[in-house]
Amino acid sequence: MPRCIDGHQCPEWDRTEYGETALHIVVIGGGLMGTATAWFLLEAGHEVTLLDRNPELAAEGSYANGGILHAGHAAPWNSPAVAGQLLRWVGREASPLLLRPGRLPWMTRWGLGFLRHCRARDHEYVKALNTRLALYGRDRMAELRAATGIEYDGDQRGSMKIFRDRAALDAAQSAAEALEPLGIRSRTLDADGVLEQEPALADTRASLAGGIHFPDDESGDACRFVRELGRVLVERGASVRTGESVSRIEGDRSGVRSVVTDRDIIQGDRYVLAAGVDAPALVRPLGLRLPIEPAKGYSVTLPVDDGADVPRVPLIDEAHRVVITRLGDRLRIAGTVEFTGFDRTIRLSRVEVVQRQGLSNLPSLASRLDPDKVEPWACLRAVSIDGAPVLGASPIPNLFLNTAPGHLGWTFAAGAGQVVADQVGGRVTGFDRAGELSPRRFGLI
Ligand SMILES: Cc1cc2nc3c(=O)[nH]c(=O)nc-3n(C[C@H](O)[C@H](O)[C@H](O)COP(=O)(O)OP(=O)(O)OC[C@H]3O[C@@H](n4cnc5c(N)ncnc54)[C@H](O)[C@@H]3O)c2cc1C
């Protein structure tokens, strides 16, 4: 008898009668989500082909992100406050969220969906769901680290939100305390407590209202992680095909028949689409409309030494909406949201905003930086209308999705990879809320 993957009353396409036989799975997309899924599929004994159009894995959204795996910071962007501010951000270069007027006509449908999910109760619901997935991912990440032994400048010393404004700190403290029942530990600190955790902030002591430390958060270089994992995949027998672009997915509502690339036609038993912002265009010809919009973000990476002015604890500057993370001998500053379609151009004005806002916390370090050694980066996050990722079975029986992790792809990667791999292989997944992340929630049937 077919059984339902997530234990809910499901339509036919969400059921599986698959056993534990080894299958050939084609994974499209070699960023964090695709590569992590490939790993868990391989672990389960399946044959895996991982495809990516770039010469190297993690060359797009997963190349230079903020580097924090932050279960304590997994709220969606949708919120009553953001809904109120959205129009004020149209065309404002220095704002943390920038809406380019030229994109507005293209994002009406998505924008209305996004606004619909800005109600307080939707925000709280998705925050709890994302937090649970992040916590599930933290455990899967620890297992993956132990199983592979890969190095990626990983660090497990937590993360710290810092505030200049007392009211913002109080509000964040209430929000952090509300996460405690879910298993998120946090400690609110005054300015001295913040400096005790992170002495590199000493120069800004006078302006600090305090901070919140999340001791169980982690950090690491996502790109290094993906590339190292890709190497392990190859060692363990997966076929990792880079520099090969998928031009179309052949099939119809009864199933995918093959994947057509610029070099080949590849057939598998099942297919996982983890192509980030390009996922919607690849499934549109099959009749699926994924409510996902690209949101550009920027980062800068700077070489650093062991000076006392270099932070060790990953920092989240809430007012400026930037994160500052040490990754070995580099410092990453990342942030901003720009709705500008598929334009991946690195605009220096936006780079400058991220760098200036991040370094405003670290004036001593800023004064001795060599501007020629700053590496700027921009890439697109795939954001769903409700702020939760899109994971699992699609209405097409042998096609599964792992996309729309938005600003939390590093945090979700191992958890989402495990959930999707379980569902592809027909196992009941250990993440009990997986059904709520299914594309079924958008009524795609
Ligand atoms: C500035 C910034 C800071 C961030 N900071 C954090 C953070 O601190 N913590 C956190 O948890 N998350 C963070 N994120 C989010 C995180 O980086 C992303 O959610 C994550 O990298 C997305 O991974 P992905 O695999 O879905 O997409 P991608 O990494 O974009 O991977 C998709 C892959 O699909 C491939 N592809 C696409 N189309 C095709 C095709 N037709 N044929 C073949 N291959 C194809 C692409 O080449 C690409 O490699 C940040 C994002 C940004 C932009």
Note the total helix count. 11
Main sheet overview: 9 strands, mixed
Quickly name the level 1 CATH class of the largest domain.
Alpha Beta
What is the count of distinct domains?
2
> Rg to the nearest angstrom?
21 Å
CATH architecture of the largest domain: 2-Layer Sandwich
Outline the secondary-structure elements.
Blueprint: E1 3-4, E2 15-16, E3 24-28, H1 32-43, E4 47-52, E5 68-69, H2 80-85, E6 97-99, H3 108-116, H4 120-148, E7 159-163, H5 166-178, E8 187-189, H6 191-197, E9 210-214, E10 218-219, H7 222-235, E11 239-242, E12 246-252, E13 255-261, E14 265-266, E15 270-273, H8 279-283, E16 292-303, E17 315-317, E18 322-327, E19 330-339, H9 348-359, H10 363-367, E20 375-384, E21 390-393, E22 399-403, H11 409-425
Parallel strand pairs: 3-4, 3-15, 4-11, 6-19, 7-17, 15-22
Antiparallel strand pairs: 1-2, 5-10, 7-9, 8-9, 12-13, 13-14, 16-19, 16-20, 17-18, 18-19, 21-22
Helix pairs in contact: 1-7, 1-11, 4-11
